Amino acid sequence: MGSVLLAIVTVLVIAYCGWGFILFFMQPKLLYGPAREVECTPRDIGLEFEAVIFQSSDGLKLTGWYIPAGDGKITILFCHGNGGNIMHRLDSISIFHNFGLNCFIFDYRGYGNSEGKATEAGTYLDTNAAYDWLIHQRKTAPNNIIIFGRSLGGSIAAELATKVKAKGLVIESAFTSYVDMGKRVYP
What we know:
six-stranded mixed sheet; two-stranded parallel ribbon
């Protein structure tokens, strides 16, 4: 009986360790859910926009949309969540526009038409590049930028806010840490 119990425990420990090993190496696939196809634009919901191409500090081509709101002075720098791409945020873009807020939404590396593969460090570089584009290309004053992050974008937006000047930071539906989220989803 003792050897059967030992065999069962051994199999369970090996299975648990194996599952942990698999999860460790699959983290990027579990964390990021990019969609490459961008089939809709703000024009599809009646909004004029500028298609933007800019570059990350490590040389990747990134893409986004700048949606002006008439005489709007405040610009939302929109850091989206882990799934889809910028076309999946048209409802939010419309809301910001209706409030008279300009919006700059961009795709992280590996999302939409942006080059590369999504990584945590890369998303920080991409967000810095988007902020720099607003400052240097659009000539938007830092005190007219609200950094907005949703879900995964909340942590990315918060990290950016520790490094740059902005009018404010809004975090929606975010989590406290990757580790906490991992413990919740994979106990």
